[in-house]
Amino acid sequence: MHPFEMFSILSYTFFQYALLGALLSSLLCACVGSYVVTRRLVIAGGGMAHASLGGVGMGAFFGFSPLLGAAAFALVGGLGIDWLSRRRDVRSDSAVAMVWTLGMSIGILFAYLAPGFMTDLPTYLFGDILSISRTDLQVMGLLTAGTLLFFFAFERSIVTVAYDPDFACTQGLATRAFETALTLITALTIVGCLRMVGIILVVSLLSVPQLTAGLFVRSFRGMILVSMLVGFVDCLGGLFLSYLLNVPSGASIIVVSVLLYFVARAIKYLLRRSHKKVPSAQV
């Protein structure tokens, strides 16, 4: 394919919407994902994402917006995981598995019971960033702006809660209130990114760019800033790979993000080896 032919797709409105959606999701997931990774809630985030399928199925069956149903199920799932994990007789991984499978089971049952079945179910499962509409961008923009303001205003408290919630309690912080608020933001972020990569893959947007950023930075703010850039590069690479190979965009974005992580890891390894050789060469 000629390079000019490849870049000609930038003139299409749907691709411009996809690029803007990629930018907004990168900013949003950088903030929320940094908290999720630092707090070690990646598996819990996966449970929330998969539980949201229950809301999608119920929305299709009862006739309301599947995305609203997904948001409600993701939020209830996150709060349910947190509540169950605090019980002494329930392990946290077991709590995630329970909520994860229950939400997906409810979603599958209602999807099959919905009149005419859900023909757009694969879109919710695997995502389709090229189908993002102007309304989706407006909602994503509001959510991203609100999340950025929240993290900017309460950065110190969020960092304390993320690294050591017990210490945060001793400092008089409203730890439970912050955790509940961040669970709500995480649920909304998951739903907001369903159009990007779908229920099955959305947790990768909340973890892989942050892992890549963590190879080179050590601060919470540094992780957020670097993962913003990494996440956007992942989305751009995935979009163009999807266009070139005519494959699903959601899966392409995740494949690119994981490949970029290993490339970054190799670069860090080579840099570390070169730094070790310099002193010995001088001697």
Question: How would you sum up this structure, described in words?
Answer:
The chain is mostly helical. It is 82% helix and 0% strand. The chain contains 15 helices and no strands. Helix 3 runs parallel beside helix 6 and helix 5 runs antiparallel to helix 11. It is globular, with a radius of gyration of 20 Å. The relative contact order is 0.15. The mean pLDDT is 89.
In a few lines, what is going on in this structure?
Helices cover 82% and strands 0% of the residues. It has 15 helices and no strands.
Topology:
Elements: H1 3-7, H2 13-38, H3 42-51, H4 53-62, H5 66-85, H6 92-113, H7 121-126, H8 134-153, H9 155-163, H10 165-170, H11 175-192, H12 194-205, H13 208-214, H14 220-245, H15 249-282
Helix fraction? Answer: over 70%
- The CA-CA distance between the termini, in Å, is 52 Å
The major β-sheet equals: none
Number-wise, the strands total: 0
- Molecular shape: globular
Mean pLDDT: 89
The whole-angstrom Rg is 20 Å
Which stretches of 5+ consecutive residues score pLDDT under 50?
Answer: none
**What is the helix tally?**
15
Write the element-wise H/E pattern from the N-terminal end onward. Answer: HHHHHHHHHHHHHHH
**Helix-strand makeup class:** mainly alpha
> Roughly what fraction of the amino acids lie in strands?
under 5%
